[in-house]
Amino acid sequence: MPRTYALAARPPRLARQAGAANPSSKPRHIMMRNAQTRPDGRDTPGTFALPRRLAAGVALACLLLGGCALTPSTPTITYDLGPPTGAAPDAAHLPKMRVAQTDGPTWLDGNSLYYRLHYAQAERLQPYATQRWVMSPVRLFDDRLREAVASRGALTWFGDTAAPALKIDVLEFEQVFDSASASRGVIRVRATVFRSGLIGQKTFVVAQPAATADGAGGVKALATGSDAAIAAILDWVATLPLQ
Q1: C-alpha distances in Å from residue 89, one per residue of 43, 70, 92, 93
Q2: Where is the composition biased (Low complexity) (predicted)?
């Protein structure tokens, strides 16, 4: 009697998964497929597996050589807010002031450049894969603020309690895409002025359109928006009873 064999059904190929970080300058989802192993021990089509001994040898060589990459990497581009613009000729003069350290949410502690696809999933905040700030954007904003205060009057040290103090809390600092081709840099900050007690507090929101729908456009919009927000804050501070 001839033998019969039952062929094992090949398991269905896994669905591609979205949500990988975008390696290019434009935010978009990249589909990735995870390597899986079939029940018979072989890899699914389209995946590649090194023999165990060879894989161990490659890993050891990488360690000995100080690290290596099996795939080419994309260079990282870093940004700051650009050169300071200085005070406008008609800007209000400020008395001697001190500036407290600017604070922000924990997700702004690093140097990631964040964007949000408002037209697709407004609740999702994502970092660019290859574009970064040179330092935390909160620190960049703090440096810019101190330069602006100094250009309008005198910036004193924080222990000088006779001078009024300005405290900024960064609430939002991101590039928001309203469509695939249109975005804006959005900055929302809360300004507090105090001395022995509270003198004034106000929230400022700036939405600066971006010239291009990519990371570079977002950086430019956020830099311009930062200067606009700081100018508005200092104009408001000049109206308060600081003396």
Answers
A1: 69, 56, 9, 10
A2: 1-21
For residues 180 and 85, what is the distance between their CA atoms, to the nearest angstrom?
31
Residues 97 and 154 sit within 8 Å (Cβ to Cβ) = yes
pTM: 0.72
Question: Would you state the pLDDT for residue 125?
Answer: 96
Half-sphere exposure of 77 (CA within 13 A, CB side): 13
pLDDT by residue (tens digit) across 20-47? 344 355 665 433 334 444 444 443 344 4
CB-CB contact of 96 with 157 (8 Å): no
Q: Are strands 17-20 and 30-32 parallel, antiparallel or unpaired?
A: antiparallel
Q: Which residue has the tokens 């935010």?
A: 27
